[in-house]
Design goal:
By secondary structure, the chain is mostly helical. Helix content is 68%, strand content 0%. Helix 1 (5-16) packs parallel to helix 3 (44-64) and helix 7 (109-125) crosses helix 8 (127-137).
């Protein structure tokens, strides 16, 4: 049922974090195929909802799967190069993600995911495509760096 699709997407993504590299790439291909091939079984909204749940759960997932931010970044990069998402969509979701809004920024996971997205776009499509997509996005990497906390002075 279409109402379950976003949950299915999030379960697949979360499950992929404990899999092998090749399976992560296969999931990116599967999600792309389900969005771009007729009959269209997944839409962008369902992917976005699934991604939001994954980002909410990411901090917990990292406990069992330390490569979760990297693997998520690779899946998202595939969706960007296939034209399903834009870098700015991914960046906004990452900024807002976490168990508390913005917590992925605070703990450094946001830059890890976004950095992997950008690295993988470069690997898949080359530096010129990455530069063009990044320039159009209006995203600034500096805004994804964790804020330095001042030392507590009592």
């Amino acid at each position: 049922a279409p109402l379950f699709h976003s949950t299915m997407v999030s379960l697949w993504m979360l499950d992929s974090f404990v899999r092998k590299d090749v399976e992560v790439d296969l999931l990116g291909n599967l999600l792309t195929h389900l969005c771009k091939s007729e009959p269209f079984l997944l839409n962008r909204g369902q992917l976005t909802e699934g991604l939001q749940y994954v980002l909410f759960s990411l901090e917990d997932a990292i406990v069992d799967a330390p490569k979760a931010p990297e693997f998520l970044g690779r899946i998202l990069a595939k969706l960007v190069v296939e034209g399903i998402f834009f870098i700015q969509d991914i960046a906004r979701a990452i900024k807002d993600g976490g168990t508390e809004p913005g917590s992925l920024l605070e703990n450094g996971h946001a830059i890890e995911v976004l950095g992997t997205v950008l690295e993988d776009i470069k690997r898949l499509k080359g530096e010129p495509v990455l530069s063009a997509l990044y320039s159009k996005s209006g995203v600034h990497l500096e805004s994804f760096m964790p804020k330095k906390r001042g030392d507590f002075e009592g």
